[in-house]
């Protein structure tokens, strides 16, 4: 393979799986193990919502710098679909990317579950009882927000995330700064929406944690698959007509 050739598909899929693995391990791991420490009542050294938001943003920054040159650094089915809708990514490659992202996410949450099982007596059960960083609405929203708020939040914030990604990676954008802009935008999104839905904007992340959260998470999972994808597609289809006059293809 020449230096200018695109990486082979197996390398791209491996990078997507690894990047999503790191995203779930770092972001959801912070939520499970470090958000409230030693516990929710006496959270003396826990990182709280701010720490969780930063953890998700930092995993994207790290993943984008390390793996972006290989796969583009999507790590999120909604991002992959949004990029395809914008014309920046081939529709024929969407399926493989999504499968790789789901596998990476599930591996990440499975490692977290294994770590929790090795904790003090009852640690895994307590983590499961508290939601295992899964996304939810109604009684499973951190602050009790309902279905309508969850739908609006996930759709709008995923669309915002895609607009940032598309703008930061446009040919007229400043090269080298895209991972920082994207990671900081994901941090901001989490700061807004952790109290509402525990923040998805990523179906692979939601599926990964639902596996270990219990039956309620499976019942609500559809919201965190459908509406992040809807937001990504809306942004992808809207981006080019909105900004075609200033974009250099």
Based on DSSP secondary structure assignment, what is the total number of beta strands?
0
Largest sheet: none
Going by CATH, the homologous superfamily would be Glycerol uptake facilitator protein
> First CA to last CA: what distance?
26 Å
CATH class: Mainly Alpha
Order of SSEs? HHHHHHHHH
* Continuous helix count: 9
* Overall body shape: globular
CATH architecture: Up-down Bundle
Cα-based radius of gyration, to the nearest Å: 18 Å
Structural class: mainly alpha
Keywords: Cell membrane, Membrane, Transmembrane, Transmembrane helix, Transport
Protein name: Aquaporin Z
Organism: Promicromonospora kroppenstedtii
Subcellular location: Cell membrane
Q: Could you walk me through the main structural features you see in this protein, from its secondary elements to its overall organization?
A:
- The chain is mainly alpha-helical and 249 residues long.
- It has a single domain (9-239), classed as Glycerol uptake facilitator protein.
- The chain is built from nine helices and no strands.
- The two termini are 26 Å apart.
Concise overview:
With 249 residues, this protein is an all-alpha fold. The chain is built from 9 helices and no strands.
Which helices and strands appear, and what pairs or packs with what?
Blueprint: H1 9-34, H2 48-71, H3 77-86, H4 94-117, H5 123-129, H6 147-168, H7 178-197, H8 203-213, H9 215-243
Properties at a glance:
single chain; mainly alpha
């Amino acid at each position: 393979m020449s230096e200018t050739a695109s990486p082979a598909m197996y390398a791209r899929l491996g990078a997507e799986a690894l990047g999503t693995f790191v995203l779930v391990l770092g972001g959801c791991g912070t939520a499970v193990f470090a958000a409230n420490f030693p516990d929710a009542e006496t959270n003396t050294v826990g990182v709280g919502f701010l720490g969780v938001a930063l953890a998700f943003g930092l995993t994207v920054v790290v993943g984008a710098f390390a793996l972006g040159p290989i796969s583009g650094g999507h790590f999120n089915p909604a991002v992959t679909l949004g990029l395809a809708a914008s014309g920046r990514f081939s529709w024929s490659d969407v399926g493989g990317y999504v499968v790789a992202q789901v596998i990476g996410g599930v591996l990440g949450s499975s490692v977290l579950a294994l770590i929790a099982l090795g904790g003090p007596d009852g640690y895994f059960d307590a983590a499961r009882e508290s939601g295992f960083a899964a996304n939810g609405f109604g009684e499973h929203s951190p602050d009790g927000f309902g279905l309508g708020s969850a739908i609006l939040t996930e759709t709008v914030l995923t669309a915002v995330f895609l607009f940032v990604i598309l703008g930061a990676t446009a040919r007229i954008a400043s090269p080298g700064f895209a991972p920082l802009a994207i990671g900081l935008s994901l941090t901001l999104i989490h700061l807004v929406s952790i109290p509402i839905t525990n923040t998805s904007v990523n179906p692979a992340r939601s599926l990964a944690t639902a596996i270990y959260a219990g039956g309620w998470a499976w019942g609500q999972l559809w919201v965190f698959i459908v509406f992040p994808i809807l937001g990504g597609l809306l942004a992808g289809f809207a981006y080019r007509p909105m900004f075609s006059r200033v974009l250099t293809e």
